[in-house]
Amino acid sequence: MKHQPHITIIGTGFGGLGMAIQLLRSNIGDVHLLEKADDIGGTWRDNDYPGCACDVPSHFYSFSFEGRADWTRVFPPRDEIFAYMNGLADKYDLRQRTRFGCEAQRIVFDDTKQKWHIHTKAGEVLETDIVITATGQLNRPKMPEIAGHNDFKNPIFHSAEWDYSQSLEGKRVAVIGNGPSAAQFIPEVAKQAAQMTVFQRSPCHVAPRGDAAYSGFRKFLFRFVPFYRKLYRGLLYWSLESTFLSFNSFEKVRFLARVLNRASNFENRIAEHFDEQVQDPHLRKILKPDYPIGCKRVVISDDYYPALQRPNASVETRNIDCIVETGIRTDDGETHAFDVIIYGTGFASTEFLAPMQVVGTKGADLNKQWHEGAEAYLGITMPHFPNFFMLYGPNTNLGHNSIIFMLECQFDYILRALRALRGMNAHHAHTIDLKESRLATFMDYLKARLASSVWEKDCDSWYKNEAGRVTNNWPDFTYVYQKATQEFNLEDYDFTPAPNKIEAAE
Known about the structure:
Layout: E1 6-10, H1 14-26, E2 30-35, H2 43-46, H3 78-91, E3 98-100, E4 104-110, E5 115-120, E6 125-128, E7 130-133, E8 156-158, E9 172-176, H4 180-192, E10 195-199, E11 206-207, H5 216-224, H6 226-241, H7 251-260, H8 262-277, H9 281-287, E12 299-300, H10 304-308, E13 313-316, E14 320-323, E15 327-330, E16 335-337, E17 340-343, E18 357-359, H11 366-369, E19 388-390, H12 403-423, E20 429-434, H13 436-451, H14 478-485, E21 493-497, H15 499-505
Parallel strand pairs: 1-2, 1-7, 2-3, 4-18, 7-19, 8-17, 9-10, 9-17, 10-13, 11-12
Antiparallel strand pairs: 4-5, 5-6, 14-15, 15-16, 20-21
Helix pairs in contact: 1-12, 12-14
């Protein structure tokens, strides 16, 4: 591929923006981005519910190559994160490279031209050499199948589509769900509503957050002593990384847990937090989980338990039978009247790349290949889909560290792949395609690691697909992933010549 390849990135969240920046800094390719919405930002654009913030410390929820010295708090609120992303888009002039309001619906590989055709919702067909998807795992709100949803006569909405036109002051509010997003907005709703009822299917483990504003002196150090910020970022990384000791039991983890005694420390913190904040016997009974820590995503909060103990708050554990005109009917036949219903039910996280259809070489249909669960080598590449890369793909989500770290590893790997492709010019290489044998070996490794992970335990979570298969989480330390992505092995891929070279050979 002697010419600069045309590279199309789909999505402008952290993955899309970071990948574009690294490609531009490396002078690899003619970079363009597609965004279905009218602005950049991905999940941090869409989610602006009250209390929205990140569960990862601010100095580690930002790119290592684009650090920020003026974070105001240990845990960044949504508006600061969104401002950071907008600053990156402005600095690298990424909006000029982005087609907004352009939703990719079908992506098809042309075997003759050895190029990808992107069919948009508007009916256009865009041609490109390389596709990099950055659509994320948390971009499609999950709406539970509850009968009568359309019968409710009052406002009803999902947290990812917060309706700020509706005041909650003095209202009777129902919250369906109690996961990480719900745990952030529930305290804010409780401050406004006359009555708030949280419908809980199962309780969640809650770890203390320990959020605080950075002092002026700390911010001075972050700004004027670069080594201090780098050291602090490193300490954050290893503090988060050590939490993995609580989530897996394979031999290396057990050994490190015994040496560092960190697994029991994390579990003790959760237990102590529960004991300190929940003392009412009834609430202790209904809020204490009966499944292992980490089986579902751990909520990080200092104000979730206190919010549930306010005089105007209650927790309902009876199952929802249906939604009616005036509220919610539980399975005991009782109807609970509400003025507003809010879904805090998360996202359809296991349907990777949905609702797009992706068709590779010789008609290979990705939806059919993934009918039992999404699979990709390092969560990035797949056989029969040449010059196609994913960011935040299958089994690259984390339960203990920062996805920004994983994304940076993926950026590095894709850059190495594209440099390797460029370096194969002497052999007239035009595309690279992962070998099936490499994916099979990698999936065996994932299967073995997942078998000893807490995510395989008997509990429902957004880490699993409908068949109960864990398709979201990386089941090892993140430094293992980093090491794996620091090398691009040519033997893992087949290289295909440019079309004119194929014709000459024939």
